[in-house]
Amino acid sequence: MTTDIQNRKDAFTFIWRIQNFCYNSHHLFQTLTSPSFHPNKMAMTRWKLILKASECSTSCYIQRDFFDNGPEVFTINFETSVLAPDGSAIESTIVRKKDTQFKRNSVFPTIELLTAEILQNERDVYLPQDVLTIQCKMWTDRSCCEIERVYARSTLCTERDLIVQRFELFSSERSYMPSSFQIKSKSKDWLVMCVKMGLIAGSDENEKIKAEIKVFNLFKTCKFICNVHLLDAVGKKTQCGFVDTRYGVSDNDLSFLPIPLPYSKKEMIDRKSEYLPNDELCLQFEFLFANGVIQNEIERTDYDLQLKPAHIPTTSDFHNTPLSNSLYSLYDKQEFCDVELKTKTSTFHAHKLVLCAVSSVFKSKLTNEELANTSGCIQIDDLDDEILDLLLHFLYTGNLENLQWETAGQLYHAAGKYDVHLLKAHCEAFLMRALDTSNASETLVLADKQRDSFLKDFVVNFILQHDEEIFPSDSWKYLTQSNIELALQTMLLKYRKSQTN
């Protein structure tokens, strides 16, 4: 009988991140296909995931390639889920299928991942930074000697179009001034949409001015962002409108998108020298849209040859269990301790078996012949007392309480140096949840020092989306002085993105 996935030690895991997911055009029933993957222990079969979008939902399918070298029919068990920012599976999306037979090129619908309601109300949970992360676990009844995890990424590339519209004779009696233009993709040389824009000044001079956008002839996408800026006589920009059609906007809604400007016609005329040089009102429309290019890549593959559980436990897996309570009691009461950890100011008593079980670095130190011939003391010069105490508390209990950002950063560094994978994963998830414009620069440095590509990519994407607030900040200025190479890498990505768009 097939064992449940939570108890399996040999599941193959495929983790697929889709960036800029909400630029996918549901009304065109577009599909997204993952990079293909072939698990080592599954008879040379090759697979891929397919996302199919409709007006109401997005569903995930698992497909076996026609041209793989496996048997004509292959039986697997699998589980598909959406991952939250901390890497945990969102339970409401999990589905399990046992003993499913796949023929070559066969497709099996696994789950409805996203509904229109989720896109409207739970985007922060399912789509942090507009990134959808899907996990597919596959296993058979045959045992194997390794755990394999493949990480893949697909990016829906975007382009940016800037259109400057000048409305002449603004102070005249005309109340409606129409204009129209086309949005074209430069990378694929096709027409994306046609836009008709009208400026409504109103008959009452005290009535606020409104810009009206009508989108018609949608050829490739209805998902876009439009920023509207008012330009003064010297070209200084003031944001006066914003449209985002990526969430819950139907084709009919695109026929009329009103954008109120912050001034009335009278106020504009009163500030004519500032905003109406030569009696012209100047507006800049910035459109950001998907260009139809999708970049796919396999980022990395991780192997675990020691048959550790594929499931990474969360803090709750250890919290308040009899074993963890007993272990911590031994540590807290300093009973049967056989090793000392010495900082510059304090000595901590611990147990060799516990340290060796959770840290390869401590294991190496404790099995070192030179140390074995001493009194069993390890000098810890790179951690202060508080951080070492928290590290030991986690090693004994698997629990973190009242974690703060600064402490999480220090523990993240300690976990990386002493090779405590579970603690590092906990800290990484906390840093992702706590990421904001005030700590993004420091978090980027932490990820870079630990060579953590997943966290680093997450932070870089956040910085590029909030560059106007982060780049002028004191923390970014300090980063450019202390780590100019890292700052230049980020700025180069910003430049390349602007050139692509």
Provide structural commentary.
The protein has 501 residues and is α+β, with helices and mostly antiparallel strands. 28% of the residues lie in helices and 35% in strands. It is built from 16 helices and 19 strands. The protein has helices at 116-121, 123-126, 265-270, 272-275, 322-333, 352-358, 360-366, 369-372, 385-397, 405-417, 421-433, 440-449, 453-465, 467-470, 474-482, 484-500; strands at residues 12-19, 31-33, 47-53, 57-64, 73-82, 95-103, 107-115, 131-139, 147-167, 176-185, 190-200, 208-216, 224-231, 237-244, 257-264, 281-304, 339-342, 347-350, 377-379. The strands form four sheets. The protein has an eight-stranded mixed sheet, with no helix packed on it. A hairpin with a 4-residue loop joins strand 10 and strand 11. The longest helix is centred in the C-terminal third of the chain and has 17 residues, at 484-500. It is flat and about 90 Å long. 30% of the residues are buried.
Number of helices: 16
Shape: flat
Q: State the helicity in percent bands.
A: 25-40%
The largest sheet is: 8 strands, mixed
For the secondary structure, the number of strands is 19
- Biggest sheet strand order reads 6-5-8-1-9-16-13-14
Q: Alpha-carbon distance between the termini? A: 53 Å
Mean pLDDT: 78
Helix/strand-derived category reads alpha+beta
Unreliable segments (pLDDT under 50, ≥5 consecutive)? 1-7, 306-323
Strand content: 25-35%
| Rg (CA only) | 28 Å
